């Protein structure tokens, strides 16, 4: 059985299909056999990091410095296959590559790129991205973290929240206000005054790590400031890289949930015939497939536009919003189709649905992306009075 009823595969190149097959095989080999246990125990598998690095998946859309330099569609396909395994694993790759590594690649100095990117691409160093704060989630302009100049150094004080990987990271990209506006800093996590504490317990993204960060008089040399990062545009450029990956990744979770529902419906017998033979079951499956295929075509369109250098922020918002909405609805419907068995970790839909609650919230809530689209339509920003 196939869920690709529109033959979207025919729109991919041989190289893109090869990337899909390679990452799918990695997921089948390294993630699927263990993910239920990782999720139940709330464990992030650090042993997977060098495996992902060796596969060229860390910063794979970046060029040079040991990065794979793959196209936008190949990157999206890889994120989709990883999230078919679990959103938490895809999130690690996104935080490492699309946030931390992209910040260094886009806004760092040559010395910073040479020092960090090759090691991060191999998985020998882990990065995190400190933008969100306890009182500044959807409104990063309200951040309170402040960096003051002290001779040749900067001293940073503040707090960050829901920062992926922070407790295992070697370097943190920290965004802070200064007297000259928002700037970005590379903070080595063993610096005095830097503390990262995992947020526990969680009902979502349990095979991933999200943290609180406290910065108390953290001293950073000028050489660790990202020289090209000026204003909120800098972190937003990184966020858009991650949002693009989410527009693809969420569809992997949705597809996996649909495939599980299809397999279950074919095997489960009710009233003397397969569940899949029931008209209501077929209607539910058809709706799930339709919504995923529509979102998949949008994601592919965005990928082609990104490769052509034409992709705009509101288009990324449309992709993130459409994909996550479709995926979470499909995961919930698939769980319902599995009946009582659907609440068991033996099956993936409820795990995907729980994870997608986080995916729906981070990198911009539904409301934020709706207002980005509204701004593009009307030319009027509704974010501030």
Automatic annotation (TrEMBL):
Gene3D superfamilies: Acyl-CoA dehydrogenase/oxidase, N-terminal domain, Butyryl-CoA Dehydrogenase, subunit A, domain 2, Butyryl-CoA Dehydrogenase, subunit A, domain 3. GO terms for biological process: fatty acid beta-oxidation using acyl-CoA dehydrogenase; fatty-acyl-CoA biosynthetic process. Pathway: Amino-acid metabolism; tryptophan metabolism; Amino-acid metabolism; lysine degradation. Residues 230-377 form the Acyl-CoA dehydrogenase/oxidase C-terminal domain. Keywords: FAD, Flavoprotein, Oxidoreductase, Transit peptide. Its EC number is 1.3.8.6. It is an enzyme of class 1 (oxidoreductase). GO terms for molecular function: fatty-acyl-CoA binding; flavin adenine dinucleotide binding; glutaryl-CoA dehydrogenase activity. The keyword Oxidoreductase applies. Its cofactor is FAD. Residues 13-124 form the Acyl-CoA dehydrogenase/oxidase N-terminal domain. InterPro entries: Acyl-CoA_DH_CS, Acyl-CoA_Oxase/DH_mid-dom, Acyl-CoA_Oxase/DH_mid-dom_sf, AcylCo_DH-like_C, AcylCo_DH/oxidase_C, AcylCoA_DH/ox_N, AcylCoA_DH/ox_N_sf, AcylCoA_DH/oxidase_NM_dom_sf. The keyword Oxidoreductase applies. It catalyses: glutaryl-CoA + oxidized [electron-transfer flavoprotein] + 2 H(+) = (2E)-butenoyl-CoA + reduced [electron-transfer flavoprotein] + CO2. Residues 128-218 form the Acyl-CoA oxidase/dehydrogenase middle domain. It holds the Pfam family Acyl-CoA_dh_N. Belongs to the acyl-CoA dehydrogenase family. PANTHER family: GLUTARYL-COA DEHYDROGENASE, MITOCHONDRIAL (PTHR42807). This is glutaryl-CoA dehydrogenase (ETF). It comes from Agrococcus pavilionensis RW1. The lineage of its organism: Bacteria, Bacillati, Actinomycetota, Actinomycetes, Micrococcales.
